[in-house]
């Protein structure tokens, strides 16, 4: 199975991560070699042409492809596939399942393959959509093509795209031990996309009689990371890329989660049944409500509307000081205050994980209105000691530390930010690429190949995301702007989603369709000046139960391309038409 060779990457370790030195060390990223930015004229936009499925059950023989086994090709009648939250039935389509690159690992002796399924609608819109999935992958999620945001009301398949989904090269949903196998690491990081993309395009060509006119890529969380990696590594293959809450520095973010466990363990008040620190007691629900309310008290009105939304978290950073905004408990903790120790812990987490020398390990996080919600607590107090410890233990550390250490919270508490954390940059003769190499975009601010072929990138990120920081995405976008003469908006736009947690939920207008505007941008040259988002109150397809009670059920807001934010211009506080991006 031919591995695709990639150009060498520029990736300094933590010591060189100051923005200025990064840009200098990486040659500026934009027009190449640190030379002055030279604008290029993107290709003339053209729209995809619809087509009709010509072939399904015989595709296994018609679409033969290197190192690929098709295990089934079956017709699926209209309405036979239900998608949660989507009221209209899935269209008639062909379901092709199979695997690429089946092999037996010489390291752990297990059998691996890149499992996939592809759903090809009979009435095709002429487009291909790569559905990137979340977490540790390991599961062929049905290839319906999530368009992102909170409980979307349609899918790429419903819209007529031919959609592929994969397990990213290992089987077993969210089971981390595939990280013992070096090739499975690379497949998860980037190689599954490299292998599947040409296979899928060939399948489309055989199914419809012609190749896709346009190709798109989308996902959230680890899927957003896949999207950011595709934008950097596979620009020649994709016309439009949609990256949601992207964990494009996922190994760093996972280590930062372990740092959070260590911090929270300092202020717990009880142990679990297993005799371990109960992180849920580090900050009670009442205490986080106090913090979130203090954020709103200081920051909500700064954007011109006291509406429960902090439209500009950068402005809030200047205005909000935990030390003075939240009362310090004079006596016992009662929910209305934080102890001095708690303030220190929360400040450490929000200012960002550091090693003992004070060097930043990941990123700061913005104080926002959604940091008292369920999803935030889930990531900080639960996933941090299960999912993140497993990922660091088996997939991101080199060699994998998890094979010789306890799991769960004990792994997190025993993890040294000085000695162990640098293992995400390490490689060995067996593990030839570090996690930071295979998981992250090479030189993420250099997207000149994507830009120069006229492809477009839309990124969104909830500002109350607990695990991947919107500050990190903001920092990346600032570097991208700098690499493009101060303005990257001709090909890449970043839409922060105020109040939204990890890929949805929170006190937010979290339902939006960014795929349709991405297609309009790619194919008609219409750049998105704003994107309307809707709250999911009573009557929504899937109700967001965490919305503030004083919001209308169907509140709308414009999401604005950074650095613009939504400013109130008068009228109903519930309507997007009362706001403008500026
Ligand atoms: Ca506000």
Indicate the topology:
Layout: H1 19-25, E1 51-52, H2 59-62, E2 68-76, E3 93-104, E4 111-121, E5 123-124, E6 127-131, E7 162-166, H3 182-208, E8 214-220, H4 222-233, E9 240-244, H5 250-264, H6 285-299, H7 313-319, H8 322-325, H9 340-351, H10 374-382, H11 387-396, H12 408-413, H13 435-439, H14 448-452, E10 456-462, H15 470-482, E11 492-497, H16 515-524, E12 531-534, E13 556-559, E14 566-568, E15 579-581
Parallel strand pairs: 6-7, 6-8, 8-9, 9-10, 10-11
Antiparallel strand pairs: 1-5, 2-3, 3-4, 4-7, 12-13, 14-15
Helix pairs in contact: 5-9, 5-11
The structure holds calcium ion.
Description of the molecule:
Helix 5 packs across helix 11. The radius of gyration is 23 Å and the shape is globular. Helices cover 28% and strands 15% of the residues. 53% of the residues are buried. It contains 16 helices and 15 strands. With 582 residues, the chain is an alpha/beta fold. The chain starts with 18 loop residues before the first helix and ends with a strand. A nine-stranded mixed sheet has the order 2-3-4-7-6-8-9-10-11, with helices on both faces. A two-stranded antiparallel ribbon has the order 1-5. Among the domains are: 190 residues, no CATH class; 187 residues, no CATH class. Bound molecules: calcium ion. The site of calcium ion (CA) has 8 residues, from loops.
Annotation keywords:
582 residues; alpha/beta; binds calcium ion; disordered N terminus; single chain; nine-stranded mixed sheet
């Amino acid at each position: 199975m031919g591995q695709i060779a990639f150009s060498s990457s520029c990736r300094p370790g933590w010591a060189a991560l100051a923005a200025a030195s990064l840009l200098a060390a990486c040659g500026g990223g934009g027009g190449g070699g640190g030379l002055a930015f030279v604008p290029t004229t993107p290709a003339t936009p053209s729209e995809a042409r619809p087509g009709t499925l010509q072939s399904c059950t015989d595709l296994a023989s018609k679409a033969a492809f290197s190192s690929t086994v098709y295990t089934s090709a079956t017709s699926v009648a209209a309405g036979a596939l239900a998608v949660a939250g989507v009221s209209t039935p899935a269209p008639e389509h062909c379901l092709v399942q199979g695997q690429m690159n089946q092999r037996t690992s010489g390291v752990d002796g297990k059998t691996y393959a890149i499992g996939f399924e592809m759903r090809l609608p009979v009435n095709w819109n002429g487009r291909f959509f790569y559905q990137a999935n979340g977490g540790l992958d390991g599961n062929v999620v049905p290839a319906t093509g999530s368009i992102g945001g909170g409980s979307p009301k349609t899918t790429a398949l419903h819209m007529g795209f031919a959609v592929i989904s994969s397990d990213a090269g290992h089987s077993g949903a969210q089971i981390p031990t595939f990280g013992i196998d070096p090739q499975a690491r690379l497949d998860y990081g980037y190689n599954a996309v490299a292998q599947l993309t040409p296979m899928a395009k060939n399948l489309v060509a055989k199914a419809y009689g012609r190749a896709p006119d346009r190709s798109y890529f989308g996902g959230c969380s680890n899927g957003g990371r896949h999207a950011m990696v595709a934008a950097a590594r596979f620009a020649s293959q994709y016309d439009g890329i949609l990256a949601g809450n992207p964990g494009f520095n996922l190994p760093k973010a996972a280590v930062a989660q372990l740092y959070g466990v260590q911090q929270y363990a300092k202020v717990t008040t009880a142990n679990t049944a297993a005799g371990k620190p109960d992180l849920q007691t580090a900050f009670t629900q009442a205490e986080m409500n106090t913090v979130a309310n203090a954020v709103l008290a200081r920051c909500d009105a700064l954007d011109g509307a006291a509406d429960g939304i902090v439209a500009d978290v950068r402005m809030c950073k200047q205005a909000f000081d935990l030390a003075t905004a939240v009362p310090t408990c004079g006596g016992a903790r009662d929910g209305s205050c934080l102890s001095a120790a708690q303030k220190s812990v929360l400040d450490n987490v929000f200012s960002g994980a550091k090693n003992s020398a004070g060097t930043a390990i990941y990123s700061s996080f913005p104080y926002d209105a959604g940091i008292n919600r369920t999803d935030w607590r889930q990531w900080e107090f639960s996933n941090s000691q299960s999912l993140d410890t497993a990922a660091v233990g088996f997939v991101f550390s080199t060699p994998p530390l998890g094979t010789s250490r306890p799991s769960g919270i004990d792994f997190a508490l025993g993890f040294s930010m000085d000695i162990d954390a640098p293992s995400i940059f390490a490689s060995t003769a067996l593990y030839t690429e570090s996690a930071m190499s295979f998981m992250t975009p090479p030189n993420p601010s250099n997207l000149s190949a994507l830009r120069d072929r006229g492809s477009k990138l839309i990124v969104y990120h909830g500002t109350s995301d607990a695990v991947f920081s919107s500050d990190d995405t903001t920092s990346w976008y600032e570097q991208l702007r700098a690499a493009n003469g101060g303005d990257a908006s001709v090909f890449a736009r970043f839409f922060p989603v105020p109040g939204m947690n990890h890929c949805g939920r929170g006190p937010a207008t979290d339902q939006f369709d960014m795929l349709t505007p991405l297609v309009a941008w790619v194919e008609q040259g219409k750049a998105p000046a704003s994107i309307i988002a809707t709250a999911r109150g009573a009557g929504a397809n899937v109700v967001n139960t965490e919305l503030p009670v004083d919001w209308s059920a169907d509140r709308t807001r414009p999401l604005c391309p950074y650095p613009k934010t939504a400013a109130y211009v008068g009228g109903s506080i519930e309507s997007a038409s009362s706001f403008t991006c500026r």
